Amino acid sequence: xxxxATDLYQLTMAAGYFHRGMTDAVATCEMFVRRLxxxxxxxxxxxxxxxxxxxxxxxxxxxxxxxxATIPGLRDAMTPAFADYLRGLRFTGDVDAMPEGxxxxxxxxxxxVRGPIVEAQLVETFLLSAVNHATMIASKAARVVxxxxxxxxxxxxxxxxxxxxAVDAARAAYAVGFAATSNVxxxxxxxxxxTGTAAHMWTMAHDSEEAAFAAYTAVFPSASILLxxxxxxxxxxxxxxxxxxxxxxxxxxxxxxxxxxxxxVRVILDENGCRTAKIVASGDxxxxxxxxxxxxxxxxxxxxxxxxxxxxLDAPALGGVYKLVELTVGGKTRPIAKFSEGKGTFPGAHxxxxxxxxxxxxxRDVVTLDDEAADPAWxxxxxxxxIPVMRGGKRLAPAEPLxxxxxxxxxxxxxxxxxxxxxxxxxxxWVGLAPQPSPRxxxxxxxxRAAYAVxxxxxx
Length: 460
Fold this sequence. Notes:
Elements: H1 8-19, E1 26-33, E2 43-44, H2 48-57, H3 62-68, H4 80-88, E3 94-97, E4 103-104, E5 111-116, H5 117-122, H6 124-148, E6 152-155, H7 163-175, E7 180-181, H8 184-190, H9 200-204, H10 209-219, E8 224-227, H11 233-244, E9 248-253, H12 258-271, E10 278-281, H13 287-295, E11 302-305, H14 307-310, E12 320-329, E13 332-335, E14 350-356, E15 362-369, E16 383-384, E17 387-391, E18 394-395, H15 402-414, E19 436-437, H16 439-451
Parallel strand pairs: 6-7, 6-11, 8-9, 9-10, 10-11, 15-19
Antiparallel strand pairs: 1-5, 1-12, 2-4, 3-5, 3-17, 12-13, 14-15, 14-16, 17-18
Helix pairs in contact: 2-6, 6-7, 6-13, 10-11, 11-12
């Protein structure tokens, strides 16, 4: 499954390990985000379910193996022995990860893979793609939900991204608090509530706006939300109220000055006996615009957010990386780090310990070595964020219900300190809730740096 959804260099390295007799080496790799995007104060981890499904089903077909032999950069290594090795390859490693919906910060491992080096290498690209995209969307969606307060938000972005990405985006958005999606496949596949109205085309396909509203109400008497801005929004509101009457569930505004129009439409609906009809607003909305509308008192009950969400327009790339942190050969484990300027890594396998105050707010995260006990001076009753989710290539539990992920995301957002909820761009000096390396980890960094003879100034 998706064996070729990878970069070529993963396959050339895999072939190299095979031909150099390194297939028994066990690699430990961790995925993390080096630095938060400029406009993000936290992340919401997402994408783990897709990763686990991929790992469980990873295999090379005969057609895929035959194709690999035609690639110039790989052809020399595609011997019969290596082809046989690929035929039998299955993921047999272990995975520990932050559960989906967990708030996370820079330089914290979101997941860890430990397994034979070829397997750990081959899965890198897919894991980065799945987790980077889903986490990017979930983190953006969390900001939108924060801005909407007690108003509902609907995901409307399918037409603005790739069809496969649209389904994942709808899932991620719902997981962090969106009320529904317009994407029907996301509803079928994940149980996300699906909602929608008619487009302007429906209105324009009828002889008049009145005829369009009457026809739609006749077909959908229990779900009459009418799009009223095809011609004139206020006249559209009057016509919707008079034609649908008590069947009118709501109206949608998709253009113009949403603040002034929503106020005027609310008055029209109330004066025509449609006090329970909701106002839905859409049209290039994002968390900043929603916050402005709410601060101004716009009587909008539901916001539809599309393009800005599914492209994460203000921060369209997360930049998560996947790095080797230790290697075991012949029973001996060697911690490994990278010391490139601006791209350094921590050696060894890690855990993230999260501490909370009495009110349940996060006070600090400490990145420790995986086998390291918490120091009482750090705080009481830490929560380890990385948990075992796969052993020997097999899941330890069935797929987690989306409702559980949604509840975790809500609890994670509620646990954030007040300044992390702000929507404005952090100042250059702001470091957020930067995780602290433990003393043992700091000592190991120094030890590995000395072993590689890397001067202090070159490390990052």
